[in-house]
Amino acid sequence: MFHYILANFAIHVQLNDAETARLVSVLQHHVVEKNDSLLQPGSVCRHVWFVNKGCLRVFNRDKDGEEHNVLFCPENWWASDMASFSNHAPAYYGISALETTEVFAITYQALEQLYVDVPKLERFFRILSQNGLSLFQYRLNANLSKTAEERYALFQKQYPGLEQRIAQKHIASYLGITPVFLSMLRNRAVR
């Protein structure tokens, strides 16, 4: 049950048996049905989630209520609204399941205690945060400087196989284009 999440931690830190047991003791396992939410914009984010199976989307709503996908979190990805989680403030982002999704959750209080009990985990989450900031900066730059075709190619590279699993409207929202234009891009790519 814990194979994927422990392998994810092992990318950056090596935990001994006691540290692994301490980590596993705070993990909360949940199954989120397709279209159900883990976090609504405006609520306080109380967890970080690891996607064991399935796919989440992180999105925000504009003043007209239209949703804009900013990140997809398939297997082996982490999801949260970090500003809300860290500052106990209302979330800017929402998080919902694009397919039935199995996650492991860690609460803020449990994570803070893990940093004390297993200091290696503070290093892991620092690296995770640095990687997330790098991804955010790269995505922001791509949205400002790349064409829709280039953004689509980057999506396909970053999320291999995801295109066949989620609705076209979600991909279009992520790319900042309409579903009709996405269909045109797909047709051009096939030719």
TrEMBL record:
Pfam families the record matches: cNMP_binding (PF00027)
Top-level taxonomy: Bacteria, Pseudomonadati, Bacteroidota, Sphingobacteriia, Sphingobacteriales
Gene3D superfamilies membership: Jelly Rolls
Protein name: Crp/Fnr family transcriptional regulator
Species whose genome carries this gene: Mucilaginibacter pedocola
Alphabetical list of PROSITE patterns matching this protein: CNMP_BINDING_3
Superkingdom of this protein's organism: Bacteria
SUPFAM superfamilies membership: cAMP-binding domain-like
Domain Cyclic nucleotide-binding: 11-123
Coiled coil: none
